[in-house]
Design brief:
Number of helices: 2
Number of strands: 0
Structural class: mainly alpha
Helix content: over 70%
Radius of gyration: 17 Å
Order of helices and strands: HH
Distance between the termini: 32 Å
Strand content: under 5%
Length: 57
């Protein structure tokens, strides 16, 4: 998922250099959303992993 965020960031940078402001802005917003979703999913996964590890087998 982070690779998608990085891809949109690169697209935004290339679009900004070429002068496509609208596309660059949209790509940056998509990259931000995907990045934060990835962080939230990571935190949920980490918390669930710690909770599962605490149980007796």
């Amino acid at each position: 998922m982070l690779s998608w965020a990085l891809t949109f960031l690169v697209v935004a940078l290339i679009a900004a250099v070429l002068g496509f402001g609208g596309i660059a802005g949209t790509a940056i917003e998509i990259a931000k959303i995907i990045f934060f979703v990835a962080i939230i999913l990571f935190l949920i996964s980490a918390v669930m992993g710690f909770m599962r590890r605490g149980r007796a087998p």
